[in-house]
Amino acid sequence: MTQRIGQQNKGDIKVAVDLIIFTVSDDSLKVILIQMKKIPFTGKWAFPGGLIGDDESIDNAAKRELKEKTGVADVYLEQLYTFGDVERDPYGRVVSVSYFALIPSENINLKTIDKYFDIGWFDITNLPELAYDHKKIAAYALKRLQWKVEYANVVYSLLPRYFSLTEMQKVYEVILGRKLDRRNFHRKVKSLGIIKPANKKQIGKHRPAQLYEFSSRKPRIIAVL
Amino acid sequence: MTQRIGQQNKGDIKVAVDLIIFTVSDDSLKVILIQMKKIPFTGKWAFPGGLIGDDESIDNAAKRELKEKTGVADVYLEQLYTFGDVERDPYGRVVSVSYFALIPSENINLKTIDKYFDIGWFDITNLPELAYDHKKIAAYALKRLQWKVEYANVVYSLLPRYFSLTEMQKVYEVILGRKLDRRNFHRKVKSLGIIKPANKKQIGKHRPAQLYEFSSRKPRIIAVL
Fold first, then answer.
1. Contact (CB<8Å) B151/A221
2. What topology is assigned to A154-214 in CATH?
3. Best of B14, B15, B64, B99 to disrupt the A interface by mutation (most A CBs within 10 Å)?
4. How confident is the model at residue A224 (pLDDT cuts 50, 70, 90)?
5. pLDDT in tens, A99-138
6. Can you tell me the ipTM of this complex?
7. Which residue spans of chain B are classified as CATH 1.10.10.10?
């Protein structure tokens, strides 16, 4: 075992939550990172998170952390994975229960605290050097999100209430990291029954586009069988 | 806070793994349960599991537990959810990282240890009274499995290498808890590209059925877009 900083008794495990908060803006998929002060990670970036409270459930700790950092609630929040490698934290045995959130890009005021140097949005495909095992967590979160949008309606949490199919396609393309055929996308997405036409058209355009909304703004699986 | 049995310091959390091990046999979806000795759960049933070792990752603890109880490895094993309510264990703060496994029903010899009264297979729709929050874990595991088979090829881990479409349909019906239209099922499952005809026919039948095998016996998402 490598040498550890600080003291911890055998069998004494700490549990933290880490949040991968995604948004789509400026045609890129972005996540929130905080810049750390504490050694040995001084100056490196990490996903926001922290230890769970003694009288706090893990799910509530994740909601609290999301609210503290972004001011938002009522967005899509899902437990991603619990990372529990023995040596993942130099301060002792810390298990990280990670969550990912999907939030719309408007009206988010990121708040940092004195514990960190800074907080900001970063393109998931171009991250700075990350602390702990957060590079692995980032890769897993992206993969899960890419899978998820293929079989669930969760992009509702990234889009405004009303949106055009062009805007919806752009969100998919940014997440999947590849161009989609326009006609094929329109046909498929209409056949899945997850969206419906709204009684609205896009304003300020030469040819106003039909706007759509999600049939349900709650998580739903798109069944294939 | 309710009174707790035993001693635990503030902030001292224990981490356990719990395994929901599914199989399909005799036309029902079954899970493994162990019968507990320790108070206050004496005589009640629970999913097999235990605390993670000091020098053991959580994922390795799950694999060890599966191997110990069933003798199998190389089956589908997925982290399900981490349950972390404050009062879930009367002995103190214990976080449960649950996993679910899908195993074929043949050649499994369940092994219990002296710590428990008994071990056995139970129909997921007809479980005895469960210890801890395991009733909630059981409900979540079933829901996740029902979702999962709709968008991934994971039933490969419940079926033998070669199977007929009738056998495959039966596994889906048992998991989903409803009858499927035969013609529709055959058409859809063939169109998904997850199985291929094997160069074999079922033996011992008046009209031998075509046998199939999975194109890949690794987890794969069935994309809809």
1. yes
2. Arc Repressor Mutant, subunit A (1.10.10)
3. B15
4. low
5. 999 998 876 778 777 889 999 999 999 999 999 999 999 9
6. 0.87
7. 154-214
pTM: 0.89
pLDDT attached to residue B3: 46
User: Which H or E element spans position A160?
Assistant: none
* Architecture of the domain spanning B14-148: Alpha-Beta Complex (3.90)
Residues of chain A with CATH 3.90.79.10: 14-150
Beta strands in A84-221, from DSSP E residues, in sequence order: 94-102, 116-123, 195-201, 210-214
pLDDT band with cut points at 50, 70 and 90 for residue A69: confident
CATH of span A14-150:
3.90.79.10
Q: Does any CB of chain B come closer than 8 Å to the CB of residue A7?
A: no
Q: In chain B, which segments carry CATH 3.90.79.10?
A: 14-148
User: What is the rounded end-to-end Cα distance, in angstroms, of chain B?
Assistant: 48
Residues of chain A with pLDDT > 90, as a percent, come to 73
8 Å CB contact between A122 and A33: yes
Is residue A150 within 8 A of residue A138, CB to CB? The reply is: no
Name every chain A residue with its beta carbon within 8 A of the beta carbon of B10. 54
Q: How far is B32 from chain A (nearest CA, A)?
A: 23
Tell me how close the Cα of A82 comes to any Cα of chain B, in angstroms: 7
**Which residues sit opposite B201 in a β-bridge?**
B210
Task: Say whether residue B57 is in contact with chain A using an 8 A CB cutoff.
Answer: yes
DSSP string covering A19-43: EEEEEEETTEEEEEEEEE-STTSTT
* Nearest one of B59, B48, B51, B62 to B112, comparing CA atoms: B48
Q: Cβ(B43)–Cβ(B117) under 8 Å?
A: yes
The larger pLDDT score, comparing residue B206 to residue B133, is at: B133
